[in-house]
Structures are given as structure tokens and as C-alpha cells.
Design a protein that fits this description.
about 150 residues, two-stranded parallel sheet, mainly alpha, single chain, about 45% helix
Length: about 150
């Protein structure tokens, strides 16, 4: 499960669809509707928020908006649109780590998208996240070294 901190506008088609599905799974976990993934590190920041379901629905809403802009047909009924506006923080180190991690994935999966993105100096965060100083988040399972 990867709930990206980077803005979904950067994701290739497969990445955006995967993010939608994985976030719906995360939502089910937070709603207590599944037994798996309960302790997944990617969920910790949502679980620690004051209103985890508002946070995950806010996160989904942005993914849905990106899908609409690409004329994809993601089911908007999967989102509880009564969520209250919320925000979470993400460190600059985490965002940088995810940017490099994402680029390594998209280089193999969608070389054309990689060529489009590889010269970016930084990626914008998903709008749910406020960018703060700091290293890679403690919940991250580091698989890449810069």
C-alpha cells in the first residue's frame, strides 16, 4: 500500500488507478470494514489525525478530482462527501524520498511520463498535506537510498 504524499497530478495512469484502489482499502480499514492492513505504516498518519475518516475522504476527493480532469470514471459514491476540511503534515524529507521513489517506479512503468517529470526540482504535496521541515517520516519503510 502506498498513499503518496505527492500530488496525484504527477501519477501516471496505472499509478493513479492504484492510488484510488489503495486509498479505498485504507478507508475500509479506518472504517473497521476489513481485517487486513490494520497496522500498515502508511495508515499511521491518518490514524493519528483527529478525524481519520475526514482525512481519508479529503485525500480521496483530490484523487477523484484528478481522475475527472483526465476523464477517468472513478465512482464518486465511494467518498463520504460530508467530510470536514482537514489537513495533515508531511516533512520535506518524506516528500523528497517519495519523489525519488515514484520516479524510479514510473521510469520502468511509463518512460514517456518519466521523461516529462525527471527534470522537476521538486514535487508539490497532495493538497491534504502541509509541508514542514524534517527528514523522512518515521513510519516510512525505506527501500531506496538517495
Amino acid at each position: 500500500m502506498r498513499l503518496w504524499s505527492i500530488h496525484p497530478k504527477y501519477l501516471d495512469a496505472k499509478g493513479l488507478v492504484a492510488l484510488w484502489r489503495e486509498t479505498l482499502l485504507a478507508k475500509h480499514v479506518l472504517e473497521g470494514k476489513t481485517k487486513g492492513y490494520k497496522n500498515h505504516p502508511q495508515l499511521n498518519r491518518f490514524k493519528k489525525s483527529q478525524k481519520p475518516l475526514d482525512a481519508i475522504n479529503s485525500y480521496l476527493a483530490v484523487i477523484h478530482q484528478e481522475a475527472l480532469s483526465r476523464q477517468y470514471n472513478f465512482d464518486k459514491e465511494k467518498i463520504d462527501w460530508s467530510f470536514l476540511p482537514t489537513s495533515l503534515s508531511v516533512t520535506k524529507g518524506q516528500l523528497q524520498y517519495e519523489s525519488v521513489h515514484f520516479l524510479s517506479k514510473v521510469k520502468r512503468r511509463d518512460p514517456k511520463k518519466y521523461e516529462e517529470l525527471k527534470t522537476l526540482l521538486s514535487f508539490d504535496p497532495h493538497p491534504l498535506f502541509n509541508l514542514i521541515d524534517g527528514d523522512i517520516e518515521d513510519w516510512e519503510i525505506v527501500t531506496l537510498r538517495n
